[in-house]
Amino acid sequence: MLPTLITVTLASAPGWIVAALLDMPLLGWPLTVVGVTLALMQRASSTHRPVAAVLPSQLGWLTLQREVARARRNGEELTLIRIDDPADSPISLDTIAAHAREVDVAWHDDAAWLLAVGAGDDGRDALTSRLRRALPEIAAVDAVRSMTFPGDAMTVHALVAGLTRDERRPVGMPVLVTDAVEDMAFGQELTGAGGSGA
User: Fold this and answer.
1) In Å, what is the CA distance from 107 to each residue of 14, 33, 52, 65, 89?
2) 0.70 surpassed by pTM
């Protein structure tokens, strides 16, 4: 609130000076309105607040487990996106979250992960295209991979394994009983379920 008040005060100063010192209120008033409007527009465009939730790694994985179970119960879709970090630095989760949707969840582990709740193939394509435009450092390489439940994979383990190049479980991903139960129910191998990636 205070930064906005300071912005308005400074932006309105030229108009007040013209109105008071030069005794030209008809020129000062429009100058004040234009100054404040431009300053607030500039402030709004420069404010970069994340839209999606940014979670710690462990909580991100638990949210994925919960959302897959919910999607299975309700017959819904969801997409899991993995964004490999560039060699020089990790990708900012705030940047990813700012270009995602309110219902999405982002976290960082061995890479940046984004859970797009309710997104099927069309939503996945739109979201990955938006991320590539927003993050030029990943656009030129195959750094963004995604899979959709249930079309591409029927379990949490299958989603993660399909997005992990070396087939190992990401460092912070917990080994939960539901992984084994889901994978056996759908006849899938338990590669890496013993925590070999940890």
Assistant:
1) 46, 42, 10, 14, 16
2) no
Interatomic CA distance for residues 82 and 124, integer angstroms: 12
Q: How far apart are CA 193 and CA 157, in angstroms?
A: 8
| 147-178 tens-digit pLDDT | 999 999 999 989 998 888 665 666 667 665 45
Cis peptide before 150 (omega within 30 of 0): yes
Distance CA 117, CA 196 (A): 28
Residue 189, pLDDT above cutoff 50: no
CATH 3.30.70.270-classified regions of the chain: 53-185
Chain segment 53-91, per-residue pLDDT in tens: 899 999 999 999 999 999 999 999 999 999 888 777 777
Q: Is domain 53-185 in CATH 3.30.70.270, yes or no?
A: yes
